[in-house]
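Sanity check record (used in CI):
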Amino acid sequence: VPWPDLRYIFGEIMYGGHITDHWDRRVCNTYLGSLVQPELLNNLTLAPGFKSPDASKMEYMQYQKFIEERFPPEQPQLFALHPNAEIGFLTNQGIAIFK
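Expected output for Dynein heavy chain AAA lid domain-containing protein:
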């Protein structure tokens, strides 16, 4: 993972481009420097009840296979939504199909 590149993209392009005050940009970059680190991936909660494995102990393909095999099925809780959020979506899709 190119950590310096990610920090630059977030700190200077995506979010930093909207920060007009020099000191606020400095604070943003300081937070990014502290938070966006390789340790971020260790025991990261990718979904409720699903923690990522230690990335340093797996190759890329092993890591990908681990996620593909063990990641829970898609559900509203994965996106921090109420379980009933899916009901409205599925209802609208059903209506669209029968139109």
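The longest helix spans residues 22-35. If this sentence no longer matches the regenerated tokens, the check is flagged for review.
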